[in-house]
Fold these 2 entries.
Entry 1:
Amino acid sequence: MELLNLSIRELNKLFITKKTKPSELYSEIFNRSASSEAALHAHLSLFEETNLDKAKKSDERFSKSENVGLLDGIPLAIKDNINIKDEKTTCSSKMLSNFVSPYNATVISKLDTEQTIYTGKTNLDEFAMGSSTENSAFGLTRNPWNTDYVPGGSSGGSAASVASRSSIAALGSDTGGSIRQPASFCGLVGFKPTYGSVSRYGLVAFASSLDQIGPISKSVDDARIVYSAISGHDSLDSTSINDEQIELPFEKNATIGIVKELMEDGISEESKKEVEKVIDILKQKGYNIKEVSLPLIKLSISIYYLIAPAECSANLARFDGVRYGLRVDGKTSYEMMEKTRAEGFGDEVKRRILLGTYALSAGYYDEYYGKALRARKKMVDEFSTIFKECDYLISPTTPTEAFKAGEKTNNPLEMYMSDLCTIPANLAGLPAISIPTGLSSNNLPLGVQIMSKPLTDNSLLDFSEMLEKELEFNSTPEGWSK
Ligand code: GLN
């Protein structure tokens, strides 16, 4: 059982030295999900049968020492808005409940080259819109640290899967925090890479200028291994960039900025304390620390809730009863579309389509969407100025620890506030990571977020790993340790 707590590198070593083999790990993983699914509902589908052959092929490669690398035979869970050929991609929506993908997302093709194995598809807020996984049309996911609480969202299924050791690591997508926030709520590492450094081809689009795929894992090193497998230029994604990494100073000569606006009202004392703990560690190690101010951060939720719904209203127009998934018949084609969309989408998705369509409509476009775009540009400029003085920016990942299931479902505005600290990195396209730092008085995980300049992902990972070692957080929730 110990196997499930090991890192990718440790497992790879055990495979190479023939102390265990991928199919053994795979069956342990499925023993675990057999016992955890009823309590957590992290997955929408499990691939026990379909991927066992792949695990056995990995066994053979290791037995002949022909393994292809660190991810060979490693079971990863995949958020159910990322396409795997011949498997269902539901986006946790009735609209796509029977949709089987005819192709692989680029990240999946890349993982296939590494001979990764998949455990299944994970639950999410419908079309990745939400912060708690309660917006799934197929039922909520629960937090492995305490099942009264949400695992965060929208990648809550991926986080619950890794935290309960039902997969070794997972892929999520992050439009406003959906990798980092659930990682923080579940005591894990969540990494949103620089916008454009991981292909979005085959990720069902929510808000295309913000969406980014990335890993959720037990450690920074696991995140690095998955990130290096899935990143790189892809001609199938027009926003994909060439991954020429810029190096940032890492040891003592780096300057660390503490974002003032993310240490003020609305942030719990416990979340602030975690940042202070990190500051103390960095001071002791001789880093230069200063408080920095990015005044526009205060507007980031308003900017995001114009841009993301506007893009979502355009992206989700394709679900019209003709091209994909659900179709509810009507007397005319118009009635068919109306009925299909009324039945297929849940409340939060409808709310965003309405908001976005309004913000983009003639007469309002400039006042709402146009203004949000201009404010976004100013925020990017603020970040550029700060990054002339600082290498890394630190803040809490979330204003509070995980909240209880049902606590915020009737108050969308309060739910939106839980992304206060994570949204700015999406608006500015920055790489940002959440690492777990400790437990709250309720015994729930807390984390800090570190952001850096675009294309400094590798330095950000190195810096975070240094902190991770100092923090010595044990990422295993009680009850899932064996
Ligand atoms: N919670 C945010 C939202 O509801 C972010 C979601 C995401 O990153 N996919 O839009």
Entry 2:
Amino acid sequence: MDTNYNVLLIGSGGREHAIAWKLKKSPNLGTLYIAPGNPGTAQCGLNVKLDTGDFPKVVEFCKDHSIDLVVVGPEVPLVNGIVDFLEKEGIAVFGPQKKAALLEGSKQFAKEFMVKYDVPTADYAVFSADEFDDALTFVQSKDSYPIVLKADGLAAGKGVFICDSEEEVKKRLNTLKHDSKLQDAASKLVIEEFMEGEEASVFVISDGHSSHILHNAQDHKRIGDGDTGLNTGGMGAYSPAPVLTDDMLERVKVEIIERTITGMQLEESAYQGILYVGLMITENGPKVVEYNCRFGDPECQVIMPTLENDLLNLMISTTEQRLDELSIQLDGDYRCCVVLASEGYPGAYEKGKTITGLNEVDDESIVFHAGTKQDGDDVITNGGRVLNIVGRGSTLKQAIDHAYKNVKKIHFDGCYYRTDIGHKGLDRVS
Ligand code: AMP
Ligand code: GLY
């Protein structure tokens, strides 16, 4: 690889801090800009103010700063077509084009795609906004609960409802119909069979033709211990996930990943970038719960430290369609990430609490910032998910213990975290 690639990374969460931290290790990195970034990414490169929803402005920035590669962290710019826009201007971008990002941007598209290419997933039906009465009739005819209602489009994790009764279905149909925040996402509705099993996710890097599994992880979506309470963006993750045995991973590769990558080629939407495959491991094998067109957050925070490859090289090889020349190297250890959140999250919470203890974590653990802000010499809270503490171990138990030992060194008013990250994995290995 030639030297000194200037990179613009888009995003501001823990995922982007983890990507920036890993890119920074590349000997071929020139200047790394992060838009808008956070106090953690500021330790890896230059945070810049840039309206990343304004694509012409992004092009202007790339030209002014001789950017060689743009890396897009979150889904919204991808689904809105940032890759197509920048590529037309001759700028290399790591991430899927708009048509390929539909795998996350439209659940209807994803479901129809999976049926067409024989990718195992839950049975489903689709209704448009003016067919909500038909949707109810459909649910009544099934008379099988729980049943899952999903808004078709992006809804920041707030468009999926698992309903235990007809009453709840009626209530949620009303939410989907009337909640102004869901209007765009819920112009179509997907109703899905409920899949019983344990969830895990597999992260694939693909250049459209060749692909590799980077690694796997398990997220903890609910706010409370024992997977109780409201859904969140993710309260912690660990990697690898023991539920994904070698046999199961082989099935995921053959029945899901190969069919997905080939299917997207046949659709003339070759998938380039990170494909997040959210799985339910059922008694009949792996089934897809969802596709995402980006890294997971906090799953990225446990995968980046495990990956031994040069991430910049992987990303450049992806944009140049040379992934077949590389193989993925992992360090073989476990990682566990505990998310520290603001009290009240995922509902209303206060910001501006001073964070202490950041310098007291040991050298082997990593703190990735998310909702934080620099305030003079202090770092203060500035979001729902505030910090990610990542521990390492040669066993899952060691990684979990290591993460929690360091969690206890960090303080801010109203700091909340789950105390059981990794519990399902531990149950399987012990
Ligand atoms: P999604 O945004 O489609 O991933 O859905 C969010 C979460 O809802 C998933 O991570 C699962 O925990 C749950 N979920 C979604 N679809 C199903 C399903 N068909 N069966 C069981 N759980 C589901
Ligand atoms: N942690 C779940 C997600 O990134 O979608």
